[in-house]
Design goal:
The complex is a heterodimer of chains A (181) and B (333). Chain A has 181 residues and is mainly alpha-helical. Chain A has two domains: 20-108, Rna Polymerase Sigma Factor, Chain: A (Orthogonal Bundle); 109-181, Orthogonal Bundle (Arc Repressor Mutant, subunit A). Helix content of chain A is 67%, strand content 0%. In chain A, helix 3 (75-99) crosses helix 7, helix 4 packs antiparallel against helix 5 and helix 6 (133-143) packs across helix 8 (160-180). The model of chain A is unreliable at 1-20 and 103-117 (pLDDT under 50). Chain B has 333 residues and is of the alpha+beta class. Chain B has a single domain (51-95, 111-325), classed as Immunoglobulin-like (Sandwich). Chain B is built from four helices and ten strands, in the order ααααββββββββββ. Chain B has helices spanning 3-16, 25-71, 138-151, 160-171, and strands at 178-185, 188-195, 203-212, 221-226, 232-236, 242-243, 247-265, 274-292, 301-308, 317-325. In chain B, strands 5, 6, 7, 8, 9 and 10 form a six-stranded mixed sheet that branches. In chain B, a hairpin with a 2-residue loop joins strand 1 (178-185) and strand 2 (188-195). Classes of the chains: A mainly alpha (181), B alpha+beta (333). Chains A and B meet through helix 1, helix 2, helix 5, helix 6 and helix 8 of A and helix 1, helix 2 and strand 8 of B.
Chain lengths: 181, 333
């Protein structure tokens, strides 16, 4: 039986809570968190380069909003929200682009290709990516970042009850997809 | 294994293959600055409409230009080119200083940036200021003096205007290219530097304060700071204090949609030891603050420089202060 590894836990913010909290600390946060955020984004978008850009855009937003972010504890949740929103936007854009793109021009392996490869991990990731946005986001935040329902609710701007519903439906959908194969 | 466990495992395996990407912080800052400018323009348009925006821009430009002039008494205007360019323009002869060699008291507060009079722990005999540029010690100044007497090398050290422009070039302020005023008194030379504005009055960027470094009528000029102006102050860290990284920097500013950039430099390094970019600021006398990290400090004296701009030029105003490092090893200081 395979062992379950613990997902990479984001490094806690070490920046002080004092008045010295300023944009220099955003730089520090960038150094500390960009890898974990890129990894998070990579679970939501298909292209690693897209994941990088989503995170970069999130930090640009944080840069602009820094004056309003007085509480350091809210910086990382803010960045996560920005990454989720950015990833959602990318996927939406991608859907539009792919609608008008010839099939042969597709660069990324489709979920079907991943399934044919027979790789368990790819099958699971492909199934995850085929879920509706909210379900996918709830599952990633819950089972990758190990956030609580309340934290997920705060990050996504939805109620804890909705988080529970989306998570439950997401897991059920994953199970159904894997079983169907 | 449950579906949840399989999902955890798959996500952990998938992300484990993703390594640390190259640092794109500079791009982030550039994008943020551009977005901020766009936001500012949109805000201004929404607030006041097209014609009023023009009025605001004119007012801001006028304030930028007029305030430094109001805070410093002009004596004469001399156009001087940077020190590293050949020039035939006659520069004013600076008056000899009245502070006798060997004095270790701190001169009047008017000379020190921020109005502070903190005495460094190791004040070199004969020089009560922080030697910022171009010499790190009296010994270096004396060595140039001997070289000059023998060969006439680098005569620009005797010109406070050219020394000031060489200093702004060292800071990387390529827009600040003109000396508008040189005023000498018992505290040294006070050089107003800036740049011409094709659409209006010239812009005064700062008043650089210099002292003669060493003895004799051919003692070279040394930048020791900038004079405070009402519209841009750097008051933290205090002049002459011992600092370490990260350094908290702050002061007050008057202006519209300012973006303050802070650098930490030392004379022996061609590039800054640390840069912070950028802190949005504005309003009348509004406080500003930033934290800048730096590394590689080997000199005993560091230069902390703050600049703002973006309306007419990248650097429109700047202010500097001198601080000291605990572990610095400047020879002879």
């Amino acid at each position: 039986m395979a062992t379950v590894s613990t997902p990479t836990e984001p490094t806690p913010i070490v920046t002080p809570l004092s008045s010295s909290w300023d944009r220099g600390d955003l730089r520090q946060l960038y150094e500390q968190e960009r890898l974990s955020l890129v990894r998070l984004a990579s679970l939501l978008v298909h292209d690693p380069a897209d994941a990088e850009e989503v995170v970069q855009d999130a930090f640009v937003q944080a840069h602009l909003a820094w004056g309003r972010l007085r509480d350091p504890a809210k910086a990382l949740p803010y960045l996560r929200s920005a990454v989720l929103n950015g990833a959602r936007s990318r996927l939406r854009h991608r859907k539009v682009v792919e609608r008008f793109r010839p099939a042969a021009a597709a660069v990324e392996p489709s979920p079907e290709t991943a399934l044919e490869a027979g790789d368990e991990r790819q099958r699971m990731i492909a199934a995850l990516r085929s879920l509706p946005d909210r379900q996918r986001e709830c599952l990633v935040l819950r089972y990758y970042l190990d956030l609580s329902e309340a934290e997920i609710a705060a990050t996504l701007g939805i109620s804890a009850g909705s988080v529970k519903t989306h998570s439950h439906r997401g897991v059920a959908a994953l199970a159904a997809k894997l079983e169907a194969r | 294994m449950t579906v949840e466990d399989q999902l955890r495992q798959a996500m952990a395996d998938h992300t484990a293959g993703i390594g640390l990407a190259p640092d794109h912080w500079d791009e982030i800052e550039v994008q943020a600055a551009a977005a901020r400018r766009v936001q500012a323009r949109h805000r201004a348009r929404r607030r006041a409409g097209g014609l009023t925006v023009l009025g605001v821009a004119v007012t801001a430009a006028a304030a930028l230009i007029a305030l430094p002039a109001l805070t410093h008494e002009s004596t004469h205007r001399v156009a001087v080119t940077p020190a590293n360019r050949p020039t035939t323009i006659v520069t004013p002869e600076p008056a000899p200083t009245t502070v006798s060699p060997g004095a270790t008291t701190v001169p009047g507060a008017t000379a020190a940036p921020g109005g502070v009079t903190t005495v460094p722990t190791t004040v070199p005999t004969g020089f009560a200021y922080q030697p910022l540029y171009p010499f790190r010690s009296v010994q270096e100044a004396t060595a140039w003096q001997a070289s000059y007497r023998a060969t006439g090398a680098q005569p620009w050290h005797l010109d406070p205007g050219q020394t000031s422009l060489s200093f702004t070039a060292f800071l990387g302020y390529s827009d600040v290219t003109t000396v508008f005023d040189v005023h000498t008194d018992a505290t040294g030379a006070h050089v107003t530097v800036g740049f011409p504005n094709p659409n209006g009055a010239p812009v005064n960027s700062a008043v650089v304060h210099l002292r003669r470094f060493g003895t004799g009528t051919d003692a070279p000029w040394e930048v020791v700071g900038t004079d405070d102006t009402a519209n841009f102050k750097l008051t933290t860290p205090r002049y002459g204090t011992v600092v370490k990284s990260p350094l908290t920097v702050g002061g007050a500013i008057m202006g519209v949609d300012e973006s303050i950039r802070v650098q930490v430099l030392q004379v022996s390094s061609p590039t800054p030891l640390g840069v912070f970019c950028c802190q949005p600021a504005g309003n009348s006398g509004a406080p500003w603050g930033a934290t800048v990290s730096f590394k590689g400090a080997t000199d005993q004296v560091l230069i902390v420089a703050a600049s703002t701009g973006g309306h007419l030029a990248a650097v429109e105003r700047f202010t500097v202060t001198g601080v000291r490092t605990a572990g610095g090893s400047t020879p002879g200081l």
